[in-house]
Write a structure and sequence with these properties.
The protein is α/β, with parallel strands linked by helices. It has a domain at 105-367: Type I PLP-dependent aspartate aminotransferase-like (Major domain) (Aspartate Aminotransferase, domain 2, 3-Layer(aba) Sandwich). It is built from 16 helices and 11 strands. The protein has a 7-stranded mixed β-sheet with strand order 1-7-6-5-4-2-3, sandwiched between helices. It is globular. The chain starts with a helix and ends with a helix. The structure holds pyridoxal-5'-phosphate. Pyridoxal-5'-phosphate (PLP) binds at residues 89, 148-150, 189, 191, 242, 246, 271, 273-274, 300, 303, 312.
Length: 478
């Protein structure tokens, strides 16, 4: 039996740690290759076989050592560092950020109150202010970090509810006033509807706003969506716009939505989980015009800022609003300051989480060592790839684009002229084949016109040659 003393031995940590870093560095070299020695992007195994292949009994500890266990985890996972990873919008972890996460994981400061995370709490405070400045918010802005955009959207909408409902749902419950609703397009991420249902507004708590031919919210349709909700007896308190929406990567017209919110005194929330990072890029910042007028913005650094999961900023133009999402006090943790903002350093008053990882430290280190330009350049390059891939598809007679992409998410279909088979079934089969051989990792999405293949360019080393290779691979699969 290993003793606790042995498990915590500093000398073994050093030996194991050096070997582990060597192992990961070798992985980085191998995973980048797209030549004949290329690894599959995702070595596909069906879920039940995969589950059975992994040991679930721990009766003989020590039979396998760290390096062989890690080798297996590395080999059988989905390889985001592979240049032909083009699937869901998950960040390709910046190596420096992964190293910093090791430090955070060692320290494991819990974050809910200042004393359990003095350094990381201070870093979060300053980084929230920095991100708020990038968005274009003024000096009164503030923000907090949460474990993911889904929790972030819920947090922002709870604050919106406190500010706008006109009665105290937190204390009195939802029967104390009229049922509430918000306006959002059908392209909005499902977590917004989920947040609405968690808040108890029911499925009709989202009044859908129509989109245009590019899947962007039609600002002119907001009044209609508001009226429908009001005719059904609801009080409309907010609009949620996407920057960008998940399925197609479309950026809603934020400036026009802001006009509507101002005129109608509604809370304006921007779900920028994926695309708020565009504010960093000179070339693509225009897509987010109007974001600085939002009351709240959610921004995932584990999407387009190269950070390992999870790291979400919830930013408020008026920082005091960030104290309203969770109004209750836990006296054993929090001192109960006269003004809640006097206790900004007890972040647990403003987050769903009590314990939380030291999540912002890796972004602080990334920005400190490399500067903003690295991240700006990354966003520009990924969005450029989206445009380039769309150009290639537009000139190919056998491919179809449902709409030109705004950024790095591109939906498309293989549709040779005169094709007489089921279009949706064909896309599905193409994707199955590509998933099966692991040559690329791409996904699929259903749009009103049918099933489409979908790529998101996330990997800094995806090249123009990889785009051509994907087109060839789709044709061969078809
Ligand atoms: C990814 C995404 C989310 C969900 O964020 P998580 O961090 O995965 O919880 C919400 N909205 C949009 C637009 C997204 O792209």
């Amino acid at each position: 039996m290993t003793s606790l003393e042995e498990a915590f031995d500093a000398a073994s940590f050093r030996t194991q740690g050096h070997a582990l870093i060597d192992q990961i560095a070798e992985y980085f070299t191998r995973v980048r290759s797209t030549g004949t020695d290329s690894m599959p992007v995702l070595p596909w195994v069906d879920p039940e076989s995969m589950r059975r292949a992994w040991p679930a009994s721990f009766e003989k500890p020590g039979e396998q050592e760290l390096s062989s266990l890690v080798a297996r985890v590395l080999a059988e996972s989905n390889h985001l560092h592979h240049p032909r990873y083009m699937g869901h919008q998950v960040a390709v972890s910046l190596p420096l950020a992964s190293l910093t996460d090791l430090v955070s994981s060692v320290l494991n400061n819990a974050m809910a109150i200042y004393e359990t995370g003095p350094v990381s709490t201070s870093i979060e405070r300053n980084l929230a202010a920095w991100l708020a400045r990038q968005v274009g918010f003024g000096t009164g802005a503030d923000g907090i970090f949460t474990s993911g955009g889904s929790v972030g959207n819920l947090t922002a909408l709870l604050a919106a509810r406190s500010a706008m409902a006109g009665y105290d749902l937190w204390e009195e419950g939802s029967h104390a006033g009229p049922p509430l609703a918000l306006l959002a397009s059908e392209q909005t991420h499902y977590c917004v509807k989920r947040a609405v249902q968690i808040m108890g507004w029911g499925a009709k708590g989202v009044s859908p706003v129509a989109v245009d031919g590019r899947f962007r919210m039609k600002a002119a349709a907001l009044a209609d969506a508001k009226k429908r909700a009001e005719d059904a007896g609801r009080r409309v308190i907010a609009v949620v716009a996407s920057a960008a929406s998940t399925a197609t990567g479309a950026f809603d017209p934020l400036d026009e939505v802001a006009d509507f919110c101002e005129a109608n005194k509604l809370w304006f929330h921007v779900d920028g989980a994926h695309g708020a990072s565009a504010v960093l890029s000179e070339k693509y910042r225009h897509l987010t015009r109007g974001i600085e007028r939002a009351d709240s913005v959610v921004w995932d650094a584990h999407k387009m800022m190269l950070m390992p999961s999870l790291l979400t900023a919830v930013l408020f133009r008026d920082g005091k609003r960030s104290y309203e999402a969770f109004a209750q006090q836990a006296s054993y943790l929090f001192d109960g300051a006269a003004r809640p903002e006097d206790e900004w350093f007890n972040s647990g008053t403003r987050t769903l989480e009590c314990s939380k990882s030291m999540m912002a430290t890796k972004l602080f280190v990334g920005l400190s060592v490399y500067g903003k330009e690295l991240f700006a350049d990354y966003v520009t390059r990924m969005f450029d790839l989206g445009a380039r891939f769309a150009e290639r598809l537009e000139t190919a007679p056998d491919f179809e684009l449902p709409a030109p992409p705004d950024g790095n998410i591109v939906c498309f279909r293989y549709m040779p002229p005169g094709l007489a088979v089921d279009k949706d079934a064909l896309q599905l089969k193409i994707r199955r084949q590509i998933l099966g051989d692991g040559s690329f990792y791409i996904v699929q999405t259903r749009l009103p016109s049918g099933l489409h293949l979908r790529v998101t360019f996330m990997n800094p080393f995806t090249s123009a040659a990889d785009l051509d290779a994907l087109i060839d691979r789709v044709r061969a699969a078809a």
